[in-house]
Automatic annotation (TrEMBL), chain A:
SUPFAM superfamilies: MetI-like (SSF161098). Pfam families: BPD_transp_1. This is sn-glycerol-3-phosphate transport system permease protein UgpA. InterPro entries: MetI-like (IPR000515), MetI-like_sf (IPR035906), UgpAE/MalFG_permease (IPR050809). The complex is composed of two ATP-binding proteins (UgpC), two transmembrane proteins (UgpA and UgpE) and a solute-binding protein (UgpB). Belongs to the binding-protein-dependent transport system permease family. Its main location: membrane. The lineage of its organism: Bacteria, Pseudomonadati, Pseudomonadota, Alphaproteobacteria, Hyphomicrobiales. It comes from Chelativorans salis. NCBIfam families: PRK10561.1 (NF007852). Keywords: Cell inner membrane, Cell membrane, Membrane, Transmembrane, Transmembrane helix, Transport. Residues 71-283 form the ABC transmembrane type-1 domain.
From TrEMBL, chain B:
This is sn-glycerol-3-phosphate transport system permease protein UgpE. InterPro entries: MetI-like, MetI-like_sf. The keyword Transmembrane helix applies. PROSITE patterns: ABC_TM1. It is found in: Cell inner membrane; Cell membrane. CDD domains: TM_PBP2. Belongs to the binding-protein-dependent transport system permease family. The complex is composed of two ATP-binding proteins (UgpC), two transmembrane proteins (UgpA and UgpE) and a solute-binding protein (UgpB). The keyword Membrane applies.
Length: 293, 278
């Protein structure tokens, strides 16, 4: 879509886009270019010179068992976060949608955890499950279960998943509820008159009609789990135990800033860059379709 | 007729209330912990009802904190969140205006350059971006907290979409009346964009306030820490016991401003959320 009416002049519009272009160039393109460039070198330990290794960093990374493990960890983590946060949100949204009165109140009560930062959510959940003072840990102990996410990799993953999903429920709930309320009542009532029970109606009518929302949320939640959960991991487990919760973004940070392995960290950045690009393209292709329909 | 009555209605409410309970519980527990004393926490189980040390714990956190006063960290967070929100809105409004209302050499190129930044979250390019910020002497400064996060394709697109829906007649009329482009921008376009700006502001404020990784890298001086990243710094290294009442009071203070913004501006918040994802 283009405007018919335009203003004249070249200088003014260029001045108007410049602030954004300059900031983008300095803080986006230059660093991204640097990441690509650095990924082709191995710097010497003193940082005076660097040796060109071509795709050596990538080859090394892809054959590195720790990096592969981190890939699998990230996959498991993002599948679990997406499933838990979307499942709970859909359940609550279906319930709220059944109400004639009061769904607005529940919406108000449910949306604000969106505002809690992932890092703060991490601290809250860490407190509940703390091995020494945690309330949930203590009650689990009474029930005979010995919770220790500091030592047990599975429990560490579970805790990070719960804390990451928790704040995300609000967001998914909001979109699911909007999607459900957009489904024409007449369709559902027609099915009800034909004798379809709640579960049949949900399976054959509601869920298919909701699929654009579901697909959109799938992509958005995977992006969230990949890139915005650093705070949760850093506050709760710092990647441990034995790298059990070292997701890719955390590994870029720990290799680059803690381990000072710049070549490898840059190569990891480039791999992440490719992943984000793919996800963004998927999101856009789909959204294009949604806009046209 | 498909709405539920009687027992089924109560079951629906029950389900929602159980859901609400799980969502509220972590925050309730943090609130309780912020109102009791350390000995009550380190001898589990801690009580589940608030104690009487609310004022004591919160004033201790705000005034002295652990590494830096929390009041100072709140101020840093406010500067960062407001700086990012206003900065993003300002540069995006200008560039969207230029892209929609002018035809100039390089317009397509600039559009694509901005578009590509959608694909580059800060988490992906942390090491080189940190190096750039360090070269500019931006470590431990507000400009270091704000500028690298200020470019945003999302906001530019939102305004572009909106400007495209503004009737051409308005620009035409302004031109016939001899208004210069910036005059049209200030007097007509900007007032028309009010709601969009407010909705976006809510989303961007929360985005800026909740940043974690970037402040963690860029601020090594405790007095420049933002509150969200400062909480983690309050945990002792090694085996010492954390000062839980103060940490929990800080956590609640950290989540309060964005929560107030969401609840107070709920309509704008939902609008902003839906629009910025489109």
């Amino acid at each position: 879509m283009e405007k018919r009416v335009r203003f004249k002049g070249y200088l003014l519009p260029i001045c108007l886009v410049m602030p954004q272009i300059v900031i983008t160039a300095v803080f986006f393109f230059y660093p991204a270019g640097q990441a690509i460039w650095q990924s082709l070198f191995i710097p010497d330990p003193f940082g005076f010179s660097a040796q060109f290794v071509g795709l050596g960093n990538f080859e090394f990374l892809l054959s590195d068992p720790f990096y592969r493990a981190s890939f699998i960890t990230t996959a498991i983590f993002s599948i679990l976060v997406t499933a838990v946060s979307m499942g709970v949100a859909l359940f609550l949204a279906v319930l709220a949608d059944r109400l004639i009165k009061g769904s607005g109140t529940y919406r108000t009560l449910l949306i604000w955890p969106y505002a809690v930062a992932p890092a703060v959510a991490g601290v809250l959940w860490l407190f509940m499950f703390n091995t020494r003072v945690g309330v949930v840990t203590w009650y689990l102990g009474v029930l005979g279960y010995d919770w220790n996410h500091v030592l047990n990799p599975g429990e560490a993953m579970g805790l990070v998943v719960l804390a990451s999903s928790w704040g995300r429920i609000s967001y998914n709930f909001l979109f699911f509820l909007a999607g459900l309320q957009a489904i024409p009542r007449s369709v559902i009532e027609a099915a009800a008159i034909d004798g379809a029970h709640f579960w049949t109606r949900f399976r054959t009518i509601v869920f298919p009609l909701l699929s654009p929302t579901t697909f959109f949320l799938l992509v958005v939640n995977v992006v969230y789990a990949f890139f915005e959960t650093f705070g949760v991991v850093h506050t709760i487990t710092a990647g441990g135990p034995q790298q059990a919760t070292t997701i890719l973004v955390y590994k870029v940070y720990s290799d680059g800033f803690v381990g000072q392995d710049l070549g490898s960290s840059a190569a990891q950045s480039v791999i992440l860059l490719i992943i984000v690009s793919v996800l963004t393209v998927i999101q856009f292709r789909y959204i294009e379709r949604r806009v046209h329909y | 007729m498909v709405e539920k009555r009687g027992a089924a209605l109560w079951l629906t409410h029950l389900g929602l209330i159980v859901g609400l309970f799980f969502i509220f519980f972590p925050i309730w527990l943090a609130f309780v912990a912020s109102t009791i004393s350390q000995p009550e926490i380190v001898r589990p189980p801690m009580p589940l009802l608030p104690g009487d040390r609310f004022l004591e714990n919160y004033s201790k956190a705000l005034v002295s904190g652990i590494n830096a006063p929390v009041a100072r960290m709140l101020f840093n967070s406010a500067v960062m969140a407001l700086g990012i929100a206003f900065g993003k809105i300002a540069i995006s409004l200008l560039s969207a205006f230029a892209i929609v209302y002018f035809r100039f050499p390089g317009r397509q190129l600039f559009f694509w350059l901005i578009f590509l930044t959608l694909m580059l979250p800060v988490e992906v390019r942390i090491v080189p971006t940190y190096e750039v910020a360090a070269q500019f002497g931006m470590l431990n400064s507000y400009s270091g907290l704000i500028f690298p996060l200020i470019a945003s394709a999302t906001a530019t697109f939102l305004f572009r979409q909106f400007f495209l829906t503004v009737p051409d007649e308005l620009a035409e009329a302004a031109r016939v009346d001899g208004a210069r482009p910036m005059r049209f921008f200030w007097d007509i376009l900007l007032p028309m964009s009010r709601t969009n700006i407010a909705a976006l502001f809510v989303i961007l404020f929360i985005y800026g306030w909740n940043q974690y990784l970037w402040p963690l890298l860029i601020t090594t001086d405790p007095s420049m820490n933002t509150i969200v990243m400062g909480i983690k710094q309050m945990f002792p290294s090694g085996d010492d016991t954390a000062d839980w009442p103060v940490i929990m009071a800080t956590s609640l203070l950290a989540m309060l401003p964005p929560i107030l913004v969401v609840i107070g501006m709920q309509r704008l918040f939902i609008r902003g959320l839906v629009e910025s994802e489109k």
